[in-house]
């Protein structure tokens, strides 16, 4: 089967999966206690029957469950994620508005964690048993075990409150009116703390994974052969060991990539980063059904997409996989 | 003589300073939490929406910290002796932010057409209105069917915001495109809303009060985490933390910083009053002795000091001490565990467990429920703590699926506006958490509540409410916990921020920054 044919088949399956996810999410969410009309009315600090009924009618909640489900799913099938009655805007607009901030944060964290994780893992494996290895392993364990929320607050406290080096909140300096390069620099400065905080955990995971996998592969017969034919240590590590040891890291990276959209709720909350994770969390609290479903669906699509990408990367890294499939 | 001179000089200095020192310009960064769902104040009414939109929209009147009416869009007003006719003279030369004239027709449209359809809280008061007319462009007249004592208190910006007729007439109000770019008459205009980050308001250069506002712009900053909000204030990112923005235990740390001031004022109009609904319908709570026992079992002073870091005041009954027509001439429930045990023995309480549902508004409320459990178990009441998120809490309370549930409600300056709704039997309705959720039913007292609402003389009303408070406190329909105090924390160089009974909601109108 050619790669294209496989991708086509996978995409077809993905569409079906997404539809099933939409139905399942819809049912689960409506089964949860709470009613968006009552929440909205409740926030007003006063409500009467008339108000709740008006809201329910506007939200379409007065219709039978089956009708609501059908309307939603048929909308999704036509790529219409519905309307957020709470925020008075189409869901797709709300998501699009938040998407750049989230992608910037999660992709930066992704790249940081992958690059440094693999590099440090390789470094630790090359010096296995030595003090440098112990130090790196201990650091990785620390990052791995630190709760994200705490790490984030500590980062703000140290680098923002005490040292004053970096801004601790937001996406850019509010009201500064920067443009062009100045604006990019400003955003970059705001990006440092959240991206590092978010990246540390996965960096630790990649490092440990790379190190363990490198050590395992380094005892394989073909490595001995390579050494026997006189290749240098660096070449062996890069071309023979790493390339074989990287597969489990790719798997994990695929998993992390799937979380690029919805996986940064905590980081976004602590750093007041205007991303999708917060949109999801706040919509959930308000039972803004269409918005939550929309975010879930887009996240699910990302997971599926990155699973496909991961499979393709496998083939590039290890041609044997293509031959077997 | 020397002494006299010095005094004269000091008085002169005191008089001169505020006039000379009010400086124009500058920007204020205020925390808004959580992010409001919208800013069209006629449609969206939650606290954050009132905070931000209170600069954009205005009411006919404003209220000082003693709840006396002050000029707003109306520069003067007159109430007829029979209490049936309210005549408002509007300010001349008021313009909407899009340049159209604000006239009495807008008043008629707002109170007669728009708000009756969208504003549940005002709807109850508008039921007393017979007609609203505009005899000339600068005069609006409300005629009532019968006298309604608290009517003078319903003209606040969020209670009866003025809505532009030229934008909304004949449209589907909830879906009008202009809801995204609100147009009011207020001191600040809407500029930009970056969702998840900030809302930017700019000075209304054509504001009808000379010299106001002083500030050039106001940013309302969305910072979702309470600890981060505290840090944002520490680092100087924001200048003002409106009440309730940070957890109570962070307040002392922030107010001890140099150049930081705080005030408990600016909540008088709302007077947030916290209590636990006791489900009067079933179980031990149906017995008045059990409800009284709860009151005696609780050390409410201690809870105030520990859970709320000393902020607030232990209430004597349903009416807050800052709301009009309050009295403390009622049975006082001191912390008296022995009395509680005696009451429980009397009724033969068999140890049936009761559930407490905290309000899901953060750590403080959770701890409060734990403190109550501790106190109640000391007198032998078995308590379990229930849990729910905001939507779940709304569902459980409005469907009466609870035994004891924490809540708090605003009083809006008058018992007939913000208090009686929780106690009269006509307000026992499933589906809303803002009425008589506890199911208290006392027809005798209901008559007194209704009568007190329609009296015109303040003295008569005071006497009526004295009687009501005395009786209802003995019945303990709910367990009154605390008059909440939410200090506003701000940089001391921000002057005149809190000058009215709604505090920061219309604070930027008069505020200025001292260089």
- Helix content percent band of chain B: 25-40%
* E-strand count of chain A: 2
The portion of residues assigned to helices of chain A is over 70%
Percent strand of chain B equals: 15-25%
Strand order of the largest sheet of chain A: 1-2
Residue stretches of chain B low in confidence (pLDDT < 50, at least 5 long) are 1-20
Oligomeric assembly: heterodimer
Taking all residues together, what is the mean pLDDT of chain A?
85
Q: Which short descriptors sum up this protein?
A:
heterodimer; A: 325 residues; mainly alpha; MetI-like fold; 2 domains; two-stranded antiparallel sheet; 15 helices; B: 515 residues; alpha+beta; D-Maltodextrin-Binding Protein, domain 2; Dipeptide-binding Protein, domain 1; Dipeptide-binding Protein, domain 3; 3 domains; five-stranded mixed sheet; four-stranded mixed sheet; disordered N terminus
Please outline the helices and strands:
The complex is a heterodimer of chains A (325) and B (515).
Chain A: H1 3-31, H2 36-43, H3 49-59, H4 65-77, E1 83-84, E2 89-90, H5 91-126, H6 131-145, H7 148-162, H8 180-217, H9 221-228, H10 233-245, H11 247-258, H12 265-270, H13 276-286, H14 289-317, H15 319-324
Helix pairs in contact in A: 1-4, 1-14, 2-3, 5-6, 5-8, 5-11, 5-14, 6-8, 7-8, 8-10, 8-11, 9-10, 11-14, 13-14
Chain B: H1 2-21, E1 27-32, H2 47-53, E2 61-63, E3 69-71, E4 74-79, E5 85-90, H3 104-118, H4 120-126, E6 129-136, E7 139-144, H5 165-168, E8 188-194, E9 198-203, E10 217-222, H6 226-234, E11 240-241, H7 251-255, E12 260-263, E13 273-278, H8 288-297, H9 300-307, H10 337-347, E14 354-357, H11 363-378, E15 383-385, H12 390-398, E16 404-409, H13 415-418, H14 443-453, H15 458-475, E17 478-483, E18 488-491, E19 494-495, E20 512-513
Parallel strand pairs in B: 1-10, 14-15, 14-16
Antiparallel strand pairs in B: 2-3, 4-5, 5-7, 6-7, 8-9, 9-10, 11-18, 12-18, 13-16, 13-17, 19-20
Helix pairs in contact in B: 3-4, 8-10, 14-15
């Amino acid at each position: 089967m050619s790669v294209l044919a496989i991708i086509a088949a996978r995409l077809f399956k993905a569409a079906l999966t997404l539809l099933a996810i939409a139905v399942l999410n819809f049912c689960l969410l409506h089964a949860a206690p709470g009613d968006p009309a009552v929440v909205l009315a409740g926030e007003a600090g006063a409500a009467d029957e008339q108000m709740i009924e008006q809201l329910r009618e506007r939200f379409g909640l007065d219709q039978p469950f089956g009708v609501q489900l059908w309307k939603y799913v048929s909308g999704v099938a036509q790529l219409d994620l519905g309307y957020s009655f709470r925020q008075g805007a189409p869901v797709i607009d709300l998501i699009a508005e938040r998407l750049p901030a989230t992608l910037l944060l999660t992709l930066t964290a992704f790249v940081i964690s992958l690059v440094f994780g693999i590099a440090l893992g390789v470094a630790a494996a090359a010096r296995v048993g030595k003090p440098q290895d112990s130090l790196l392993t201990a650091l990785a364990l620390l990052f791995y075990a630190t709760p994200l929320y705490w790490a984030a607050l500590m980062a703000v406290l140290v680098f923002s409150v005490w040292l004053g080096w970096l801004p601790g909140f937001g996406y850019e300096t509010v009201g500064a009116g920067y443009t062009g390069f100045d604006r990019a620099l400003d955003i970059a400065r705001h990006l440092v703390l959240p991206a590092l905080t978010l990246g540390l955990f996965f960096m630790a995971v990649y490092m440990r994974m790379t190190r363990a996998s490198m050590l395992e592969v380094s005892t394989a017969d073909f490595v001995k052969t390579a050494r026997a034919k006189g290749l240098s240590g660096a070449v062996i590590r890069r071309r023979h060991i790493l390339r074989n040891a990287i597969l489990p890291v790719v798997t994990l990276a695929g998993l992390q990539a799937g979380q690029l959209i919805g996986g940064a709720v905590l980081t976004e909350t602590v750093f007041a980063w205007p991303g999708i994770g917060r949109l999801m969390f706040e919509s959930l609290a308000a039972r803004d059904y269409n918005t939550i479903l929309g975010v879930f669906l887009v996240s699910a699509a990302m997971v599926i997409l990155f699973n496909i990408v991961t499979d393709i990367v496998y083939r590039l890294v290890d041609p044997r996989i293509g031959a077997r499939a | 003589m020397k002494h006299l001179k010095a005094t004269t000089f000091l008085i002169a200095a005191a008089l001169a300073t505020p006039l000379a020192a009010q400086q124009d310009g500058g920007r204020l960064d205020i925390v808004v939490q959580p992010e409001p769902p919208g800013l069209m104040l006629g449609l969206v009414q939650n606290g954050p929406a009132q905070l931000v939109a209170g600069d954009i929209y205005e009411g006919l009147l404003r209220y000082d910290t003693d709840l006396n009416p002050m000029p707003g869009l109306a520069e003067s007003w007159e109430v007829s002796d029979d209490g049936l006719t309210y005549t408002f003279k509007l300010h001349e030369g008021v313009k909407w932010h899009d340049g159209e004239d604000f006239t009495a027709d807008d008043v008629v449209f707002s109170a007669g057409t728009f708000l009756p359809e969208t504003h549940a809280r005002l709807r109850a008061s508008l039921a007393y209105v017979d007609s609203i007319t505009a005899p000339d462009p600068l005069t609006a007249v409300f005629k009532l069917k019968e006298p309604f004592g608290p009517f003078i208190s319903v003209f606040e910006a969020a209670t009866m915001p003025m809505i532009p007729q030229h934008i909304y007439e004949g449209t589907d109000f909830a879906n009008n495109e202009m809801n995204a770019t609100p147009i009011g008459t207020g001191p600040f205009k809407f500029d930009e809303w970056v969702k998840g980050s900030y809302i930017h308001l700019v000075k209304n250069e054509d504001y009808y009060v000379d010299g106001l506002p002083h500030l050039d712009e106001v940013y309302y900053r969305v910072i979702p985490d309470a600890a981060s909000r505290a840090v944002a204030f520490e680092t100087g990112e924001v200048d003002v933390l409106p009440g309730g923005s940070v957890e109570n235990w962070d307040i002392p740390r922030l107010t001890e910083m140099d150049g930081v001031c705080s005030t408990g004022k600016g909540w008088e109009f709302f007077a947030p009053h916290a209590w636990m609904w006791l489900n009067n319908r079933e179980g031990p709570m149906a017995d008045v002795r059990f409800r009284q026992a709860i009151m005696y079992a609780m050390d409410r002073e201690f809870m105030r000091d520990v859970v709320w870091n000393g902020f607030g005041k232990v209430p004597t009954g349903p009416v807050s001490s800052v709301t009009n027509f309050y009295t403390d001439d009622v049975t006082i429930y001191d912390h008296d565990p022995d009395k509680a045990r005696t009451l429980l023995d009397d009724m033969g309480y068999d140890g049936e467990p009761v559930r407490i549902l905290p309000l899901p508004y953060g750590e403080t409320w959770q701890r409060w429920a734990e403190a109550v459990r501790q106190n109640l178990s000391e007198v032998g009441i078995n308590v379990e703590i229930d849990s729910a998120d905001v939507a779940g809490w709304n569902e459980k309370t409005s469907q009466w699926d609870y035994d004891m549930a924490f809540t708090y409600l605003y009083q809006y300056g008058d018992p007939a506006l913000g208090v009686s709704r929780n106690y009269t039997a006509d307000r026992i309705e499933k589906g809303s958490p803002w009425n008589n959720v506890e199911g208290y039913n006392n027809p005798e007292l209901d008559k007194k509540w209704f009568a007190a609402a329609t009296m015109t003389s303040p003295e008569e009303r005071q006497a009526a409410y004295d009687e009501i408070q005395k009786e209802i406190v003995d019945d303990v329909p709910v367990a009154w916990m605390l008059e909440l105090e939410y200090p506003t924390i701000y940089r001391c160089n921000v002057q005149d921020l809190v000058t009215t009974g709604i505090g920061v909601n219309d604070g930027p109108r008069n505020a200025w920054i001292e260089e």
